Amino acid sequence: MERAKDPLDMPFLDAKAILQIFGGTVGQTNVYAIMHKLLEERDEKGNLLIDPARMPPVTKLLVPTDAFCKKYGIKRHKKKTQAL
To answer: Which of 19, 31, 46, 50 is the most exposed place for a label (fewest CB within 10 A)?
Structure first.
């Protein structure tokens, strides 16, 4: 049986993945609010933290995992790859 993938291993998160990360402690409405807030957040120079030009061309609402983890203080364990 295949083990479920950790959403933090993915480059982008959707609402379902964020619900999984928070363990059901937040509702779906709050998840979408979190995602929209993150997508609209700006740095000290007034630039968007997440560049829309670098987002994948999909119709689904996604946020970069790195930006999400940085905003909410989640430690992300990146897998090390071995050279063949």
So the answer is: 46
